[in-house]
């Protein structure tokens, strides 16, 4: 059985190469995840514990220590301890020339405990001197002697250390002890005297340290050998990376599912081509079991070959990835158990994918198998059964979609998932029913290109099952990609709308009056503002409106990424009646024109009117209530309107003409801005950071929130696109495979066309049209289904969250169009090799009897 399968692979490699490629890509994806994440987790664990490499033991305390010097003395006095040194570390940020990196800084260890070596310069000797890792210095474009910002302080780079490349935090060294993240010193490095038992010494250390300060059982003192400490660190980091691994395995499962479809399709086509051969074998005495074992033997051989190539591919990709992240500095880690499991999965899915075609082939009677094609009656019965089953599944899916919006909020997500499952199965299983019709419809578009195009349409629909299975693989891959892409874009547009409603103004810089408490109980601005405290806040004793300092205005004028600025003048006024609880005195009332405000925020400008005053959304005044507003010039009666995320307590907004009726003495107290690119917030916040230390200045707005949301969603979309790209690639391999096998199947037919006068170019063009039609149908159905599932999923998520926000359907058009064009271009490329093969074969050779 296996020898027969090996002969088939050896003598007809063109028939099985696509199956091997599909398996290799699927298993390569899984093995890359396993090897790379294990390598990365091990490397990060070793890097985080790297400071223990020159120590014999590591002592840690997980509770604040009142007197760290006494802990050091207690360890030092322990029998068997040769030397001890506290390790001081803290997290912070270093910046230089517009670049910044997060880092972990350590006090420079003494020579005996020093785990790193200098490649350039010297170790720190003064408080403002710093040594950076090689990669950190490169990211910041620093050379020895350069000055840069380190934790908001000026520092000088005096040396560069040979450190492993970090995935996240870079390493820095400073002179002398510092403060740890929690303000306490919790790690000590220990050298044990030669001949001493490290385990016994560690137990004695724990006992002595526990006597220095009373510790709870939940905050123990631990003393471990350096090896134990490193192993624990590696284990913790691997556990953290395993969470990521399991999430990525979902995309691996998707790739496997697409691979199963391609493999099943391939075996179906191969067995259809060998229908007469199988019939002859059965006629001369071969049993159905023998034929099944022969086919499954071929599947095992292909599964083994594909899985082996996949493991090799995973190793190569992991090497590239680990070299890129710096994890290769510690060497590759080998999750042998996982790799063996993935190898077996590759073999198993190949056998399972081939099982159904093998059963179908051997159920046919010998004489029936000798017929070139199934009878019309057989095809009709299969179609009726498919119509009934798929219609039932489709109706259940539609019913669940409707039910999604009528069940309790928390139940909407499970119901939506059930709807997506039933609809997906119905759409994919019913493909042979509608794919030929869609291909014929698309064929009307290319019909004007001549008889070659018309012939390609006829060829594409001649075998509905084969063509449909190829399109199904593409439907699945593209549909999933579009679901997640449109879902991400919809979440972004809906999130942007929510941000616009809750924070209508992108950026606000304002001066707060000294006698108005606009902050919450923790001194935090209601809409995310950072308010500096202090008495000197630009307001004089006469009670004038606060004034933005000139240096602040100059800084704001020089801000990048700003499309429109609006300077708001203000005055102080009293709102309401003194004898009522809602009375607000010394309120800062801003004024501006409606048309100018529309350039900043439509949400605010829509509510702005001469007879309206906008107040904080949580103000005690009721919406629509008529209140008196008293200024230094006079009193006016205005109707209350509320807008979220713009005004704090003690602030109000009206039109410029109404402000003029309240006071003639007006000052520029705030600047509101419209940003050009919400994702580009780093350069803006860097310029505004110095203003945060100015007493009384508040900075708020939706710009940072929207920027963070956009960045997160962009990263998610990029990762998802890359991961699902594997599934799309496998599907495109299936398109190429189907074309290649169809060329082999229609070898005599192609030769007859050549003999009747068809040129080589026309033959290649016919196959190109056929590939484009099949791919277009798969992409079209995938895009439509993906759009619907994305809308259904996002709607159910927002419904489950209990928000009444209206979902803003969004599509990242450049990405979506790019995906379609890539698929069509790949399909066109897939037709080149089969077309060339068909055109090269001489008509007389192809027409000859085998």
TrEMBL record:
<feature type="transmembrane region" description="Helical">
    <location>
        <begin position="715"/>
        <end position="744"/>
    </location>
</feature>
<feature type="transmembrane region" description="Helical">
    <location>
        <begin position="16"/>
        <end position="37"/>
    </location>
</feature>
<keyword id="KW-0378">Hydrolase</keyword>
<comment type="similarity">
    <text>Belongs to the ABC-4 integral membrane protein family.</text>
</comment>
<feature type="domain" description="MacB-like periplasmic core">
    <location>
        <begin position="20"/>
        <end position="206"/>
    </location>
</feature>
<dbReference type="GO" id="GO:0016787">
    <property type="term" value="F:hydrolase activity"/>
</dbReference>
<dbReference type="Pfam" id="PF02687">
    <property type="entry name" value="FtsX"/>
</dbReference>
<dbReference type="GO" id="GO:0005524">
    <property type="term" value="F:ATP binding"/>
</dbReference>
<feature type="transmembrane region" description="Helical">
    <location>
        <begin position="343"/>
        <end position="362"/>
    </location>
</feature>
<keyword id="KW-0547">Nucleotide-binding</keyword>
<feature type="transmembrane region" description="Helical">
    <location>
        <begin position="246"/>
        <end position="272"/>
    </location>
</feature>
<dbReference type="GO" id="GO:0022857">
    <property type="term" value="F:transmembrane transporter activity"/>
</dbReference>
<keyword id="KW-0812">Transmembrane</keyword>
<dbReference type="InterPro" id="IPR050250">
    <property type="entry name" value="Macrolide_Exporter_MacB"/>
</dbReference>
<keyword id="KW-0067">ATP-binding</keyword>
<feature type="domain" description="ABC3 transporter permease C-terminal">
    <location>
        <begin position="723"/>
        <end position="842"/>
    </location>
</feature>
<feature type="transmembrane region" description="Helical">
    <location>
        <begin position="299"/>
        <end position="323"/>
    </location>
</feature>
<feature type="region of interest" description="Disordered">
    <location>
        <begin position="513"/>
        <end position="551"/>
    </location>
</feature>
<dbReference type="GO" id="GO:0005886">
    <property type="term" value="C:plasma membrane"/>
</dbReference>
<feature type="transmembrane region" description="Helical">
    <location>
        <begin position="383"/>
        <end position="407"/>
    </location>
</feature>
<protein>
    <submittedName>
        <fullName>Macrolide export ATP-binding/permease protein MacB</fullName>
        <ecNumber>3.6.3.-</ecNumber>
    </submittedName>
</protein>
<feature type="transmembrane region" description="Helical">
    <location>
        <begin position="413"/>
        <end position="435"/>
    </location>
</feature>
<keyword id="KW-1003">Cell membrane</keyword>
<feature type="transmembrane region" description="Helical">
    <location>
        <begin position="813"/>
        <end position="833"/>
    </location>
</feature>
<dbReference type="InterPro" id="IPR003838">
    <property type="entry name" value="ABC3_permease_C"/>
</dbReference>
<keyword id="KW-1133">Transmembrane helix</keyword>
<feature type="domain" description="ABC3 transporter permease C-terminal">
    <location>
        <begin position="249"/>
        <end position="364"/>
    </location>
</feature>
<dbReference type="InterPro" id="IPR025857">
    <property type="entry name" value="MacB_PCD"/>
</dbReference>
<feature type="transmembrane region" description="Helical">
    <location>
        <begin position="765"/>
        <end position="793"/>
    </location>
</feature>
<dbReference type="Pfam" id="PF12704">
    <property type="entry name" value="MacB_PCD"/>
</dbReference>
<keyword id="KW-0472">Membrane</keyword>
């Amino acid at each position: 059985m296996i020898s027969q399968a090996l002969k088939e692979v050896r003598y007809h490699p063109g028939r099985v190469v696509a199956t091997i490629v599909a398996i290799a890509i699927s298993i390569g994806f899984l093995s890359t995840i396993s090897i790379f994440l294990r390598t990365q987790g091990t490397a990060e664990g070793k890097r985080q514990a790297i400071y223990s490499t020159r120590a014999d033991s590591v002592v840690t305390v997980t509770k604040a220590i009142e007197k760290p010097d006494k802990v050091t003395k207690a360890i030092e006095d322990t029998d068997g301890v040769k030397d001890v040194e506290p390790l001081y570390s803290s997290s912070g940020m270093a910046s230089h020339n517009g670049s910044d990196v997060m880092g972990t800084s350590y006090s420079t260890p003494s020579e005996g405990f020093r785990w790193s070596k200098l490649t350039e310069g010297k170790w720190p000797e003064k408080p403002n001197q710093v040594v950076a890792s090689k990669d950190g210095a490169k990211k910041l474009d620093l050379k020895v002697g350069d000055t840069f910002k380190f934790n908001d302080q000026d520092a000088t780079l005096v040396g560069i250390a040979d450190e492993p490349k970090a995935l996240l935090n870079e390493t820095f060294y400073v002179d002398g002890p510092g403060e740890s993240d929690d303000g306490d010193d919790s790690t000590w490095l220990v050298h044990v005297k030669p001949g001493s038992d490290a385990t016994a010494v560690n137990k004695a250390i724990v006992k002595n340290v526990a006597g220095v300060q009373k510790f709870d059982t939940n905050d123990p003192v631990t003393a471990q050998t350096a090896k134990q400490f490193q192993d624990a660190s590696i284990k913790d980091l691997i556990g953290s990376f395993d969470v990521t691994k399991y999430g990525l395995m979902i995309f691996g499962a998707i790739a496997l599912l697409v691979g199963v479809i391609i493999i099943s399709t391939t075996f179906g086509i191969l067995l259809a081509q060998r229908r007469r051969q199988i019939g002859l074998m059965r006629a001369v005495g071969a049993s159905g079991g023998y034929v099944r074992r022969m086919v499954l033997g071929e599947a095992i051989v292909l599964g083994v070959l594909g899985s082996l190539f996949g493991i090799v591919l995973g190793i190569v990709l992991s090497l590239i990835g680990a070299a890129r992240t710096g994890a290769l500095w510690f060497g590759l880690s080998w999750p042998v158990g996982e790799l063996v499991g993935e190898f077996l999965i590759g073999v198993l899915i190949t056998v399972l994918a081939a099982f159904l075609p093998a059963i179908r082939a051997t159920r046919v009677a010998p004489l029936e198998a000798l017929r070139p094609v199934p009878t019309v009656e057989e095809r009709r019965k299969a179609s009726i059964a498919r119509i009934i089953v798929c219609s039932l599944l489709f109706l259940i899916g539609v019913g669940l979609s409707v039910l999604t919006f009528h069940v309790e909020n928390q139940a909407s997500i499970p119901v939506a998932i059930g709807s997506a499952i039933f609809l997906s199965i119905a759409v994919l299983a019913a493909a042979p029913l509608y794919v030929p019709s869609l291909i014929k419809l698309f064929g009307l578009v290319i019909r004007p290109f001549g008889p070659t195009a018309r012939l390609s349409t006829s060829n594409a629909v001649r075998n509905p099952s084969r063509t449909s299975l190829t399109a199904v693989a593409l439907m699945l891959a593209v549909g999933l990609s579009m679901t997640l892409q449109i879902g991400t874009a919809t979440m972004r547009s809906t999130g942007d709308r929510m941000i616009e409603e809750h924070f209508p103004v992108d950026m606000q810089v304002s001066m707060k009056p000294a006698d108005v408490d606009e902050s919450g109980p923790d001194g935090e601005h209601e809409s995310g503002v950072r308010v500096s405290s202090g008495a000197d806040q630009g307001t004089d004793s006469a009670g004038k409106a606060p004034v933005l300092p000139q240096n602040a205005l100059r800084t704001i004028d020089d801000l990048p990424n700003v499309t429109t600025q609006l300077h708001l003048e203000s005055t102080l006024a009293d709102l309401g009646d003194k004898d009522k609880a809602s009375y607000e005195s010394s309120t800062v009332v801003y004024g501006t024109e409606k048309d100018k405000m529309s350039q900043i925020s439509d949400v605010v400008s829509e509510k702005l009117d001469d007879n309206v005053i906008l107040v904080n959304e949580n103000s005690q005044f009721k919406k629509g209530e008529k209140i008196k507003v008293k200024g230094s010039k006079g009193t006016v009666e205005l109707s209350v309107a509320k807008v979220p995320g713009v005004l704090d307590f003690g602030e109000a907004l009206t039109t410029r003409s109404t402000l003029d009726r309240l006071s003639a003495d007006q000052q520029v107290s705030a600047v509101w801005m419209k940003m050009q690119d919400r994702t580009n917030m780093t350069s803006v916040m860097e310029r505004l950071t110095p203003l945060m230390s100015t007493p009384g200045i508040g900075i708020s707005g939706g710009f940072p929130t929207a920027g963070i949301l956009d960045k997160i969603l962009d990263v998610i979309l990029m990762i998802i696109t890359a991961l699902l790209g594997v599934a799309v690639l496998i599907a495109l391999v299936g398109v190429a495979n189907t074309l290649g096998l169809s060329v082999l199947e229609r070898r005599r037919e192609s030769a007859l066309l050549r003999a009747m006068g068809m040129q080589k170019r026309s033959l290649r063009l016919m196959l190109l049209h056929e590939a484009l039609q099949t791919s277009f149908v798969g992409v079209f159905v995938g895009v439509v289904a993906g759009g619907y599932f994305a809308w259904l999923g996002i709607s159910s998520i927002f419904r489950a969250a209990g928000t009444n926000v209206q979902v803003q359907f969004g599509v990242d058009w450049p990405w979506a169009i790019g995906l379609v064009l890539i698929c069509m271009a790949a399909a066109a490329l897939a037709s080149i090799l089969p077309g060339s093969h068909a055109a090269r074969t001489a008509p007389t050779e192809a027409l000859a009897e085998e």
